[in-house]
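In the current project phase, work has continued on tokenised descriptions of protein folds. One protein thus recorded appears below exactly as we store it.

——
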Amino acid sequence: MLLAQHCAQARFVWNLAVEQLGYRHHHQRFPTYVMHSQQLTEARAVYEWLRAGSQTVQQQALRDFAQAMANWRCRYPSAADLAQTGIVGPQALRVEQVNRRWSRVSIPKVGWVRLRRSRTLADWKSYRVTLDSAGRWHIAFAVIPAPLDGPGDGSVVGIDRGVAVTLALSDGATYQAPPPVGVRKAARALSRCQRGSHRRQRAKARLA
């Protein structure tokens, strides 16, 4: 429940930032993260529901929004996929190993939460807790991978990421990602299930 509230509060401040763009005059600059952070402090003083949540999570949502605006090209950033809680900074390092498979992470306003590791954790700076379409929670740690050595001959190549072709290189080479195993079959099975049935819930979990 507390994790869901974190996600709702992050979406709330994100949508406020998007709504604010509609009141901006053409000659005015986009509000910066610093401006939004100051406004968040004022909003938390007014809304008790918002003040009860984690300021760290809400500020990270504004940082994500600022980054989305920096990358913006054709439309305003959407909060449709903001079913997540982002933690950056010293609090993101509060992770303890319980045993060979399990660890626990300290989430602001929630406390210690157990997680099952899928791989070894090393040199992370942040993490995100997300909710998938089947109602399951996941945690992903951001790790900078080790650099790969290039050919060393000064050559360059352009890469275009697409839908029909996964990667198209400027030298004519193309690479196709393998299709997800069983996704189409699981999607067809879900479409044949009656809405609200237990069978549909199980099919939805398989598809997720």
